[in-house]
Amino acid sequence: MSEAKASSKSTARRHHGQFGRVPTAIVGVIVMFLIAIAVNYIAKAVGGRWDLTENKVYTLSNGTRNILKRIDTPVAVRFYTNDSSDFMSPAEIAYSKRVEDLLNEYQKASGGKLTVKKLDPEPSTDAEDSAILDGLQRGLSRETGNEIFLGIAVSCVDETEVIPFLPARPETLMEYDLSRAIARVHDGAGSIIRIMTTMQIGGGFSGNPMMGGGSTPAWFFVEELRRDYTVEFLPATAEEIPADTETLVVLHPYDVTEETQYAIDQYLLKGGKVIAAVDPSFFYARAMGAGGNPMQAQGGPAPSSNLNKLFEAWGVKYDDTKVVADNKFATEIIRQGYVVPTFLSMNQDAFPSDDPIVKFIQNAQFLTPGGFTISPPEGVTKEDLVTTSPDTQLVGSFEADPTQEDSIKRLRDDFQPSGTTYSIISRLSGSFKTAFPDGNPADAAKKEDAAADAEKKDGEDAKKEEGEKKEDAEKKPESLKASEKDGVVLLISDVDFLYDAVCVRLNQIPGLGIRIPEPLNGNLSLVQNAIDQLSGDPELINVRSRSSGRRPFTKLNEWLAQAESKFRGELSEFEAKAKDAESRVNEILSQTPGNVQDALLSPEVQAELEKLRKEQVSMNKKVRELNKEMKRDFDLVQNLIKLLTTGLMPLLVIIVGVALALTRRFKTAAR
Q1: pLDDT digits (tens, 9 = 90+) for 4-57
Q2: Largest Cα–Cα distance in the chain?
Q3: How many CB atoms lie within 10 A of CB 447?
Q4: Which secondary-structure segment (H or E) carries 505?
Q5: Final residue belonging to a domain, choices 142, 171, 186
Q6: Contacts (Cβ under 8 Å, ≥6 apart) of 611
Q7: Is the domain of 75 the same as that of 126?
Q8: Are residues 530 and 432 located together in one domain of the fold?
Q9: For residue 26, is it within any domain?
Q10: Are strands 363-367 and 338-347 parallel, antiparallel or unpaired?
Q11: 299-345, pLDDT tens digit by residue?
C-alpha cells in the first residue's frame, strides 16, 4: 500500500513539473522578445554602428572629419530621391537608404554646420522643380523602367556642386564625392594645373572626320582634375611656363625640345612643382592612332619619351629603350593564360614610403614601365614612392611586347634576375642647379643666326640691328643658375597607368550619357593624391585612397607563382630537347634528295631518324604531362581557397551546433 502511494506521489510530481515548465518557457520567450525590442529601440535611438571591415570603409574617414571641422559657413545638402514611391526597385530603395545614412553621419560629425534635407521629387511638385533648378537629371531605373531622381546638391553661399545621379557603387566612393563637393563649395575653385603634352587627352575634335577622325572624350583622370582645378594645356614645344602655374604635369614628352626643357628648368628653379611622366614603351600609343586597339599597327604618338637634359642635371639614370620586367609583380593575363612580367600589378610591398600619396593605396598597375636609378645632386633629397622588387631585368621594348608571338615566353625562359631594385615613382625636392649653365639654348641659336646675317649686311645696318637685339636682351630676365626657392619633382616611369583602359572601367547610365567610374586599381587615386599634395586639399587624399579599387588575391598570386616556378626549369628543358630533336630530324632530311623515301635511306640513317623521332615524341609527351601537372597544382590551390571561403563558416556553425547539443545532452543525463 505504501509503495502504491509513493508511486502515485512520484507520478503527480512528474506531471506537475511538466505543466510547471510550460508557463516558465512561455514567460522566457516573452522576456526574450521584450529584450529584443528594447535592444532594437535603444540601438536605433543611440545610432551606433560597429564597422568590422579591414579599412573601416563604413566609417567616416579622418579626412572627411577634418573637412567638416573647418566649415565656418553653413553648408546645405539636398538629397533628392523617389524612394517613397513605386518608381524605384527594392535594390534602389536600399541604396537610397544607405546614402541617407551616410548623409546623417555627415550631419552629426559637422556639429550643426552642415544640414541635410531629404526631398521626394514626384511629378508636378515643388521638389521636382527644385531638383531641376539644382541641375539634377532623371535616371532610368534598370529594374522598374521608370524615370527616377536619385542625386545630391551641395550649397554654400552662392556656390553649388551637384552629383546628378548616384550610381550603386561602394560607399567609400560616395564619401569621396560628397567630401569633395563640400570642400569645393566651401573653399572655392582650385588652382591652375597645366598639362604639357602633344597628345589629345583633353577631349575635343581630332583629325579629319572624313578620314575617321572626330570628337574624342578626355582621359578620365583629366575629367577628374577638372572637377577640382582649372586645367589648361601646353604643347611640348612651349618656351615659357606661365607664372600662375601651380603644378606642371609633363606627360609623355616624346617630341620635347631643348628650349622646352629649359623652360621647365627655369620654372622649377623659381620654386615650381613638376610631375614628369615618361615611358620607354607607351603600350597604348598605338591605340591612340588605331581606333583604340593596341594590337593594331603603329600609329599615334611615338612610344618612348625622355627628358634627357633635365634628368642628367637631376642625377636620374633612365634608358628610354629598356623596360623593367619583374617576376614578383608580373600580371596574369587570364584570357591568354600566361603571366606577363612587363605588366606590373603592384601591391603595398612596392610602396616603401609612408607618404600620403601612397600610404592608403592598396594596388597599382603599370604597363611596360621604365626604371629609374637616382643619385640626387647636393641639396636635393630623394624619396622612392613605388619600387620594383630585386627580381628584375631590363629588357628591350620589343621583347617586352606581349602582342609579339612568343616574346613573353622567351623573356620568361631566359630571365636573368639583376638583383637591382628600380624606382617607378620617386620624388626629388630641394634646391636644384640649372641643367643649362650656358643659358637659354634658343638664345645661342639666335646668336648664330644673327652672326650669319651680319656677314651679309653692311656695317651700318648690322650695328643698328645689334643695338635693337641688345635692348631686347636687357629686357629679358637673366637665366637662373640655381633655385630661388625649393622645388619639387615627381618622376614617373610609365604613361599607360593613366590610360582609361588601365585604371578605370566606365559604365554608362541608360538614357543619360553619364559615365560612372569603377576604379580598377589605385592609379587614379595615386595621381590625384600627388596633385592634391602639391596643389590642393591634402585631406581629400585620405578620403580618396580608401576607394582606390579592387583588392587582389595577393597570396593566391604568390602561390601560383611558386607553383609555376617549380615547373618552369624542367618545362623549358623538355621543350628545348624536343625542338633540338626536331631540328636534327629536319637537318638529316634536308641533306637527302626530296624524292628519296625513308625506305631508301641507309639503315644507320633510318635508325638515327627513328631514335630522334622517338625522342621528340617523348619530350613532347613530357611537356604535356608537366603542363597537366602544373594545371593540377593551380586548380588545387584555387579549389582549396574556394573551399575555405565557402565551407569554413558552415563547418564552424555545424561544429558549434554539435558541441551545444552534446553539452545539453550530458547535462540532461546528469540530472
Answers
A1: 555 555 555 555 555 455 566 676 678 777 887 887 777 666 556 666 666 666
A2: 155
A3: 12
A4: strand 504-509
A5: 186
A6: none
A7: yes
A8: yes
A9: no
A10: antiparallel
A11: 579 999 999 999 999 999 999 999 999 999 999 876 666 788 999 99
